[in-house]
Design brief:
Number of helices: 9
Mean pLDDT: 90
Shape: globular
Strand content: 5-15%
Number of strands: 4
CATH superfamily: Creatininase
Structural class: alpha/beta
Oligomer: single chain
Helix content: 40-55%
Strand order of the largest sheet: 2-1-3-4
CATH topology: Rossmann fold
Largest sheet: 4 strands, parallel
CATH class: Alpha Beta
Distance between the termini: 22 Å
Low-confidence stretches: none
CATH architecture: 3-Layer(aba) Sandwich
Length: 240
């Protein structure tokens, strides 16, 4: 794997042609998880995938589409147009410098709004370049929905929402020192995403029961995600 800690001539000499581009977020994650929660998990995903593919791991884009949480201090959000422009410029840079396979990875579900239909337009613009996605939108593509369902089921967690049992368990496994001692549970209503201020519905910022989280659950989930995601990426790439 190569990163921005390498020199350009090291990357050129190794003839690296695959790049992994992580896209995270900076948004509230309850009273116990850091603003960078989705970025932490995205970084973890991207690193093991880049190692598997012997790829160039680019710096992470640390801000995504987070407009639902802008009534919580610290949250940052980019417009769809801005994000698509940044992604396009990154692809253009990679293509000009010789990369022929580009993989975008994100754990942040709201980036679906940015990414829906976008890979197809990029692929049409660069027909000689293979463009893939991993991790998101995890409820919009049946394969990824199945991956998350299986990972959660094997971990013993019923669902994944926001700053809940699943996400808290993941951060307990990755960066336990960043998890606060007193998570605030919030029951999930029938409509978990009503068209009103989310802070009115979820005053703590959590959706679900982070108090049920454990480091062991997070470690099991990470292991399952690693196995399932790598298998799916191998299938995607061998079919292209």
């Amino acid at each position: 794997m190569f990163t921005w800690h390498n020199t350009w001539n090291e990357i050129e000499a190794a003839q690296v042609r695959t790049a992994v581009v992580p896209i995270g977020s900076t948004e509230q994650h309850g009273t116990h998880l850091p603003l960078r929660t989705d970025t932490l998990v995205t970084d973890w995903m991207a690193r093991f995938v880049a190692e598997h593919l012997h790829a160039y791991l680019t710096p992470t884009i640390p801000i995504g589409q987070s407009s639902d949480w802008l009534d919580f201090p610290g949250t940052l959000s980019l417009s769809t147009e801005t994000m698509q422009g940044v992604i396009t410029d990154i692809v253009s840079s990679l293509v000009v410098t010789g990369f022929t396979t580009i993989l975008f990875i994100s754990f942040h579900g709201a980036n679906l709004e940015v990414y829906q239909g976008f890979p197809e337009s990029l692929q049409a613009r660069y027909p000689g370049v293979r463009i893939f996605t991993a991790g998101f939108p995890f409820w919009a593509r049946e394969t990824w929905a199945a991956i998350w369902r299986e990972a959660l089921e094997r971990t013993g967690i019923a669902d994944i929402q926001h700053s809940d049992e699943a996400e808290t368990s993941l951060i307990l496994a990755l960066r336990p020192e960043l998890v606060g001692d007193h998570p605030t549970d919030c029951p999930i209503p029938d409509d978990p995403w009503p068209p009103i201020s989310k802070r009115q519905v979820y005053p703590s910022g959590s959706i679900g029961y982070p108090s049920k989280a454990t480091r062991e659950k997070g470690e099991r989930m990470l292991a399952e995600l690693q196995r399932l995601i790598l298998a799916d990426l191998d299938r995607q790439m061998s079919a292209s």
